[in-house]
Design brief:
With 507 residues, the chain is an alpha/beta fold. It has helices at residues 56-67, 81-90, 121-133, 171-184, 189-206, 210-222, 224-230, 234-246, 272-280, 292-295, 318-330, 349-358, 371-379, 408-411, 427-436, 466-473, 490-493; strands spanning 18-23, 26-31, 48-52, 71-75, 96-99, 111-116, 138-140, 153-157, 160-164, 256-261, 283-286, 304-306, 309-310, 313-314, 334-339, 363-366, 391-396, 416-421, 444-449, 457-462, 479-483. The protein is globular and about 90 Å long. The protein binds S-adenosylmethionine.
Length: 507
């Protein structure tokens, strides 16, 4: 193997061809290795792997090798406490052997793989050379130039493992990519793969044509079977798969409805489950408050039905929406019923699933971040606080015949935060009633326009001054009113300031 460069770069060398490695107080410039690695998964079950080094990094590598079923020999003069613990746990089963020595070539006698994780550059280099002479794959931690293999970042959904590597060029990029993949792959994928493994032979036996088998698995792994496993209904999933296997002729697909909360506006507040169901739905029925950015995240070819209800413009009566969901599901479709915020908070989600349940349509409910949580967090107004509010109450402030019908004595209590949905038109009545029922007119109160979006605006004032301030500000719905001492904290805690809206602008 070619020895790494240990001298500083010459003026003519390109900096990207070198990188610096640190060993304690020393640092070296190493020539970068410009090769493409072959991605493989290695079977090291019951084979001997050597780890040189007794520190925490070595401990992590040992744990990884043991997880893959290897027998591991650790070579190091001393061990850190983590390795000593592993040794106590594993040595009884003969899985982990400790050699309290400095590394020499004999340690590699029956090794199939070696990892050098010492803090001594010269030792690591010797290990690399010895392993290369014996054609044993070697990894030197943080030193790609001395490696014949590198370890990828992994997303572990055992038995499914996704490996990510930048070929040793950018560990940070690899980590970022891995984090993205973590969010995209449900944790239940491991169980899904394990069940697929259980049924594999039977499916092979049942469908002799590979193409037919492939179509069967595509349908199973993207359809109700996978969905039931993700929802934790494992027994039902297996029963479904048994049934599908028994009935060679495909039955008409049964539809279902996903009642999904899309959160208050910022697409990043969607849940993983919401994201996944959005990708697999056959049709979407969505509300007015679902933001365009969120609709953009649907599959492009998914048909969309607008069922938005606007004040004085009831686009589709609730009964028609309920019936529509039943009809679409009966056509065998997977229907995504997408609602702003949380479907069970002033969202009539309960009524919709009552109708589905009454008609025997399978459904599941995915909670979303409700406007109160989203808008309050982004406005820097904690809804409860040890010093200011021990309870929080959500109400709707619908104006009907010039009045708002609420239990005022129950609302006008000290140390309580009141969040009012749909309170913009009735704001004056609301503030007056709260004062009339005992809250001081100096009680802090705020209104949040389009919380969590780039158009968020927060006006923070008092019960007495908020209505006039709001009227002058020409806010654009949706808006949310928050009343209580916690509003005082907005000026100090407002962290989300899109389009130059600074905290306390209104005061
Ligand atoms: C019919 S309710 C639906 C509530 C929704 N299910 C939820 O959990 O947030 C609609 C009201 O929620 C409030 N709202 C929804 N999104 C909002 C946002 N981004 N900012 C402020 N208020 C919002 C407004 O008061 C709006 O009139």
């Amino acid at each position: 193997m070619q020895a790494p460069m240990l001298q500083p770069c010459s003026r003519r060398s390109k900096p990207e061809e070198y990188f610096r490695v640190k060993y304690g107080k020393d640092s070296f410039l190493i020539q970068a290795k410009k090769v493409n690695f072959l991605p493989i998964f290695l079977d090291i079950h019951d084979r001997n792997c050597v780890v040189a080094g007794g520190g925490e990094v070595a401990a992590r590598k040992v744990a990884m090798l043991l997880r893959a079923g290897a027998r591991v020999t650790v070579v190091a003069p001393r061990l850190c406490s983590e390795l000593l613990e592993q040794l106590n746990e594993q040595s009884r089963e003969g899985k982990l052997v400790y050699r309290a020595e400095t590394f020499h070539g004999d340690h590699l006698a029956d090794a199939v793989l070696v990892i050098a994780a010492t803090d001594d550059f010269a030792v690591n280099q010797r290990i690399s050379e010895a392993a290369n002479r014996l054609r044993i794959p070697v990894n030197v931690v943080d030193n790609p130039a001395l490696c014949s293999f590198i370890m990828p970042s992994i997303v572990d959904r055992t038995p499914v493992v996704v490996a990510v590597s930048s070929g040793g060029t950018s560990p940070v990029l690899t980590r970022l990519l891995r984090a993205r993949l973590e969010t995209m792959i449900p944790t239940a994928y491991g169980r899904l793969a394990a069940y697929a493994g259980e049924f594999r032979d039977r499916v092979k036996h049942r469908f002799s044509q590979p193409a037919k088998r492939r179509r069967f698995w595509e349908r199973v792994l993207q359809g109700p079977f996978a969905e039931m496993v993700f929802a934790g209904k494992d027994q039902a999933a297996k029963a479904w798969l048994e049934h599908e296997l028994e009935n060679e002729t495909e039955e008409p697909v049964k539809g279902e409805v996903y009642l999904v909360g899309a959160g208050p506006g910022d697409p990043e507040l969607l849940t993983f489950r919401a994201m996944r169901l959005m990708q697999q739905a056959d049709v979407v029925v969505y509300d007015r408050l679902v933001s365009p950015e969120i609709l953009d995240m649907l599959r492009r070819d998914t048909p969309r039905i607008y069922a938005g209800k606007e004040r004085n413009r009831h686009t589709m009566p609730q009964e028609s929406i309920n019936d529509l969901l039943v009809r679409l599901a009966r056509e065998g479709k997977r229907v995504l019923r997408l609602k702003g915020g949380d479907p069970f908070i002033f969202g009539r989600g309960g009524e919709e699933i009552e109708t589905l349940s009454g008609n025997g349509i399978p459904f599941e409910v995915v909670p979303g971040i409700t406007a109160a949580n989203g808008a309050a967090s982004y406005a820097g107004i904690p809804l409860t606080h040890r010093d200011y509010a021990q309870s929080c109450i959500f109400v709707t402030g619908h104006l009907k015949d010039g009045s708002v019908d609420l239990d005022w004595p129950m609302l006008a209590r000290p140390k309580q935060t009141i969040v009012v949905y749909m309170g913009l038109l009735g704001l004056t009545v609301l503030c007056k009633q709260l004062i009339a029922h005992g809250l001081p007119n100096t009680t802090p109160a705020a209104i949040v326009q389009q919380g969590t979006t780039r158009k968020q605006r927060v006006l923070a004032a008092t019960l007495e001054t908020l209505p006039d301030l709001t009227a002058a500000a020409h806010l654009v719905p949706p808006t949310l009113v928050i009343v209580g001492e916690v509003v005082k904290l907005h000026r100090k805690l407002a962290w989300f300031q899109p389009e130059g809206n600074l905290p306390g602008d209104a005061e």
